[in-house]
Design a protein that fits this description.
about 270 residues, mainly beta, Immunoglobulin-like, Lipocalin, eight-stranded mixed sheet, eight-stranded antiparallel β-barrel, 2 helices, HslJ-like_sf, Lipoprotein_YbaY-like, META domain-containing protein
């Protein structure tokens, strides 16, 4: 009986400490770090001129009546073909509760702007976003660049595949909304955006068949009009047949019924 007392006291202390910590947690929570990584790319099938520069910036844009505050910037000179990977980690000491943070990208050549993101890519402290895709749009033609052969057949892997139809219904993103897409990488990893949430996982290619899984993703709620996300993600739970015609990827079921079509918006 005497030997049982220390054990009982130890367990009681654990519960007491847990209750105390639980009460304290309601008073304040530490501000988490902000971690984000991903790729920046453009849709045009073109090669950049030499000495082109990429800038990816992480900013605090909380005040509409004041310039954005730069938290961190990545600069890469003499870039070649996209995608261009980036990664940020900002300690909690540099963040403010309730503030809004965004990531943007731009490409310049001889101080002339060529490409820039035209959509706000918001990131949240405490949510480790590891597959953010920054899409840059072309600004002008001042820096001429050679075009790629339009007759080329897009490869299955390392191509940005934009979702264009799902179960016979056309899919089109509204202005300012990220488009649904997927990218099949050479290391048998798949990543993309389903309409509301990013997803990532693994895939296996066997001839003209693709199988996916396991697939993981973020858990943000969908806004009205984006209910197709569930069907898109469900498609990635099954084995599908694939075929490519020019720049169009088709995924079909074993009965050869087309379930989804995609358009190549960038060729690696």
């Amino acid at each position: 009986m005497l030997t049982a007392r220390p054990r009982l006291h130890y367990v009681t202390s654990i519960f007491a400490a847990t209750a105390l910590l639980g009460g304290c947690s309601t008073l304040s929570s530490p501000q988490p770090d902000l971690e984000v990584s991903g790729d920046a790319l453009y849709r045009e099938r073109m090669l950049l001129p030499s000495n082109s520069r990429l800038e990816v910036s992480l900013q605090d844009v909380s005040r509409a009546d004041a310039p954005a505050i730069l938290l961190d910037k990545i600069v890469r000179d003499d870039i070649a073909t996209p995608p261009y990977p980036f990664s940020f980690k900002v300690p909690a000491s540099k963040l403010q509760p309730g503030h809004t943070y965004t990531v943007s990208a731009r490409i310049t050549h001889d101080d002339s702007l060529m490409f820039i993101t035209d959509t706000q890519y918001r990131v949240l402290a405490g949510e480790k976003d590891t597959d953010l895709m920054l899409i840059m749009v072309r600004v002008n033609d001042r820096a001429a660049a050679p075009q790629m052969d339009d007759s080329a057949k897009a490869p299955l892997q390392n191509t940005y595949w934009k979702l264009t139809s799902l179960n016979g219904t056309a899919i089109e993103a509204t202005k300012g909304q990220r488009e649904a897409h997927l990218i099949l990488k050479q290391d048998n990893r798949v990543q993309g955006f389903a309409g509301c949430n990013q997803f990532m996982g693994e895939f296996k290619q066997e001839g003209k068949q693709l199988s996916f899984g396991p697939i993981a993703g973020t858990l943000r709620a969908c806004i009205p009009g984006l209910e197709y996300e569930r069907s898109f993600l469900q498609l990635l739970q099954n084995q599908v047949n694939w075929s490519i015609d020019g720049e169009q990827l088709k995924l079909s079921n074993p009965e050869q019924n087309i379930q989804a079509t995609f358009k190549a918006v960038y060729l690696k």
